[in-house]
Each structure stands twice: as structure tokens, then as C-alpha cells.
Amino acid sequence: MLHSTDSVLMVAPSAFGFNTATSFSNRFQHPSTSTSSELQYAALREFNTLVEVLQKAGVHVNVFNDDADSQSPDSLFPNNWFSTHDEGTLVLYPMAIENRRLERRPHLIEFLEQRATELHGTCRMVDLRSFEEQSHFLEGTGSMILARDARIAFMSTSVRSSPTVLRKWCETMKYQSYVFRSTDAEGNEIYHTNVMMSIGSRLAVVCTEAIPVDHERRGLVQQLEQCGRHVLELTLEQMNAFAANMLQLQSTKGHEIWAMSTSAWDSLLPPQRAMLEADGEIVMAAIPTIEQCGGGSVRCMLAELY
Fold this sequence. Notes:
Layout: E1 7-12, H1 36-56, E2 60-65, E3 82-85, E4 89-92, H2 98-101, H3 106-120, E5 124-127, H4 140-143, E6 144-147, E7 152-156, H5 163-173, E8 176-180, E9 197-199, E10 203-206, H6 214-226, E11 230-233, H7 236-240, E12 247-250, E13 256-261, H8 262-267, H9 270-279, E14 281-285, H10 288-294, E15 303-304
Parallel strand pairs: 1-2, 4-5, 7-8, 10-11, 13-14
Antiparallel strand pairs: 1-15, 3-4, 6-7, 9-10, 12-13
């Protein structure tokens, strides 16, 4: 089973801005003094830059435009509401924030169902949205970091990442889980696992400083090593620069790529950069507006298509 894919889905924003409803749990968000039109213009420009560099690197990018009358400031982060899997499975996730549930557009679900059927002969739908009625949430590959070859889902618990839903997901998808807790420098829980951890086919990038319990930190590193990964450890300062919010992809020619933001790359030390460069081509884009106002980076913008 391939760990990474050469195809992603991205959603171009039409109403990007500071999402007040998510800011209570996403400490990576920062209010802006720019107008709403200025934020939207800057975010769209950054979005298009990322699309361009990915395409030049040989990644197949499926771009969809958000609705013109969108009420979804975070629509450019589609990996939180769905995931796809190489056996033709499409999973829809329970979202904690009501205005983010609007991102689950019927035409996008239809596209994903049709694509799965064309590639695999069928589409198996796993719909977990009913957990929203119980106030249990699991926000896709924001909440879970998947070692797809080893079939292990890693998750840092938060108000947006529920062990209850994870157990159901693992039971359905035939995965094992590894659950732990991570916090920022002030002791606030990390809202999504993918801002402190990323897993490639041979390398795992982890902010070990964010895991306050010693045995959980050691256990996570040991589990990753047992999965065949070398662990690249990050500091809290590097995590805050979105250095963990990267994603390993493949080009259509089959070579591996690490996609990340310029701020993430700039935060890394030479030995860390060397580890990544030895593992794949580095593809980066400057997305400061999206990172600072949206509280997410490159990985959050990429929904993998298997």
C-alpha cells in the first residue's frame, strides 16, 4: 500500500477571514487589521501560488471554487471534513464548528463519490456526521495522522478530536489507534494533531516538546520507530512556525515530495533540512495571511485523493 498520493483536492476561498467561532480552540489564529476584501485577496493569491508550485512539482491538483455567497471562512482547509482511501472508501467527518459544517458541499461529495467509483468500481461511504448530535468530533486528517501502510491512526486529543469517534473510525477502517495529549507553551491543548506531527513513508516530523507527559512522548517516538520511521524532532517555536504542518506527496513520475510553507522551512535548522531533503524534493510556498489569520498551513489546505 502506498503511503502517499500524487493527487489532491484544494478549495479556493471566496470568503476567507478570521473565523471567530474557531478561535477559542485554535491558538494559531491571530486577528488581522486588514479589511475582509484585503484578506480574501491575499489568501486567494497565496492559494494560487501553492497550486502553481505543486503542479510544477508534478502533483495533480483538483481545484474547486468555494460558493460565491459562502459563509465559510475556512473553506480552503478541506482535509477536515473528508478523507479518501485506496480501497474506494470516502469518510465524512463530524465537525465541531457549525460554520465549518457548511464546507461539506453536495457537489464536492458527488465528485468524490464519482471519482471513487471510476477508480475502484465502487464507493464505500462512511458517514460519521451523526456524532455531531452527541458533541463528539473528529476533524479528518487534521485530527488524525495516518500511517496508512501500518494502519495506525495517531491522534492528540482535543475538543475537536474525540477518542469516541476515533474508536468508531478505527473499528470501521480496520486501523489501530495511538492516542496522546499535546499542548502549546502556555499549556493549551493543540487543536489539531497535524500542526504538531506529520508522517511520511520513512520519516516522521514531530514536535516532541509539545507532549508534556514523558511516557507518552517516549511511547510515541517508539511507536513511530516500530512503524519504520526515523523521527525528526521539532521545538515548540518551530511548531508555531507550522514546521510540522507539512505533507508528503508523490509526483506523477513517482518521486516523493515534502510540501510545506516558506515559514516552516525557514524555521528549520540545517541538519533538519538535510533529513527532509534526503527524503524527497522540497516544495514550498509563502502563505503568511492564511497561516496567521486562518491558523493553518500547507498540510491543512491539501485533501489527499487515493
